[in-house]
Amino acid sequence: MTELQIGPHEITQVEDAARRFIQTEVAPHLNDWEEAGEFPRALYQRAADLGWLALGYPEEFGGTPAPWVLRNALTITLARTGGSGGLMASLFSHNIGLPPVVRHGSADLQREVIPDVLQGKRIAALAITEPGGGTDVSALRTTARRDGGDYVVDGEKVFITSGVRADWLTVAVRTDVKNKGAMGISMLIVPGDAVGLSRSPLKKMGWLCSDTAQLRFDGVRVPARYLVGQEGEGFKMILTNFNGERLSMAAMALGFSECCYEEALSWARARKTFGSAIIDHQVIRHKFMDMKMRIESTRAWLNAVSARADSGNKADKGAEWVAQVCLLKNHATQTMQFCADQGVQILGGMGFMRGTACERIYREVKVMTIGGGTDEIMKELASRQLGL
Fold first, then answer.
1. Which residue ranges make up each domain of the chain?
2. Contacting residues for 119 by C-beta, under 8 A, at least 6 apart
3. In whole angstroms, what is the distance from residue 59 CA to residue 96 CA?
4. Is the dihedral of CA 101, 103, 104, 109 positive or negative?
5. Which among 80, 84, 166, 283 could disulfide-bond with 255, CB atoms 3.0 to 4.6 Å apart, if both were Cys?
6. Which ranges of the chain would DSSP assign to H, the alpha helix?
7. What angle, rounded to 10 degrees, do the helices at 68-82 and 234-270 form?
């Protein structure tokens, strides 16, 4: 089946459903979930029932092939209406955990892992980052030694979204210990209940209701059939996976920027100082225009890069496109950073209080400028893709 033919009506339907979901099933509980450090696991099933977990996946696995324009509409609306990066990071962690399996996994592995995740019955996560290094993936130390019909995994991973709850972990491992570079890396699926796997929740600045963990593998035995693709192909899988993650993060950042804009505007219209609403002051109106310029430039760039991603022309997704994704991710997260800062400033003392979206998003900005590749790495990667 080809991707859905998407028009304004389909996009509006998704946006309306996303707003209702946030308003009725998330907003009344979000502050409590933030304080508790988690949201109910049942929310995965609810998102699956709405068809959101399956968006962009092949029909043969129970997915719904969909272009980026539709996936972006969902992401932006959930972010704009809900204002919680923690909720979205964990609820959609399968979108970085499953793609390597979809693209490179054996037919048996795909059937075992993918359908239950898209149905909300299982949770999938990606485990790459290690305590000794972040962006330098090629230097990872977690090993997977072949022993008969199994791999034996030893090592650690950190900052893993959905790491405590995940039923399936897509783990980057070094299968060739003699090769210290990128070619010795492979991808392996590790069941969440594997013996020797220990998981510790991490406390964070933001994304408070997101499950984030440190993982330790002590002689974890994994059947060799859980190898994704071939040995030594893991690094290429990781690089490919990053493109989709960064595009999604740009859409999230746009939604969060709009969330800050809307909350601040509502406050500015209602809050009175010196006998008039603060929106009547020129300096405040200009803050909104500064926010609006950045929001609309981000939207236009996201739409252009996404259209190329949806194009059937492979030339549209070459090195120059990768550079565009990297720079878009930086621009979008910097827009989010600016809008969060201005939103808090406009709200004044209330912007410093827990419970406002601007305050929450202000704390979550840094993980967006770091996660999926730091600003600095994005610039360097983009410059190399452009041949500079």
1. 8-118, 124-231, 235-385
2. 45, 48, 53, 54, 62
3. 18
4. positive
5. 80
6. 8-21, 30-36, 42-49, 68-82, 85-91, 94-97, 99-104, 107-118, 234-270, 282-310, 319-347, 357-370, 375-385
7. 40
> Domain 235-385: which topology?
Butyryl-CoA Dehydrogenase, subunit A; domain 3 (1.20.140)
Neighbours of 135 (CB within 10 A): 16
Query: How far is the C-alpha of 284 from the C-alpha of 277, rounded, in Å?
Result: 10
Residue 312 DSSP label? S
| All residues at 6 or more sequence positions from 231 whose CB lies less than 8 Å from its CB, including other chains | 175, 176, 186
CATH class belonging to 124-231: mainly beta
pLDDT single digits (tens) 178-196: 888 788 999 999 999 999 9
**Residue 291 CB partners (closer than 8 Å, separation 6+):** 257, 260, 261, 264, 338, 339, 342, 343
- 362 to 76, 85, 333, 353, 384: CA distances (angstroms): 17, 11, 11, 11, 31
The confidence score (pLDDT) of residue 316 equals 75
CB-based burial of residue 45 (10 Å sphere; 0-12 exposed, 13-18 middle, 19+ buried)?
A: middle
DSSP-derived pairing of the beta strands 168-174 and 124-127: parallel
Query: How many Cα neighbours within 13 Å face the side chain of 5?
Result: 0
CATH no. of 8-118: 1.10.540.10
Give pTM, 2 decimals.
0.94
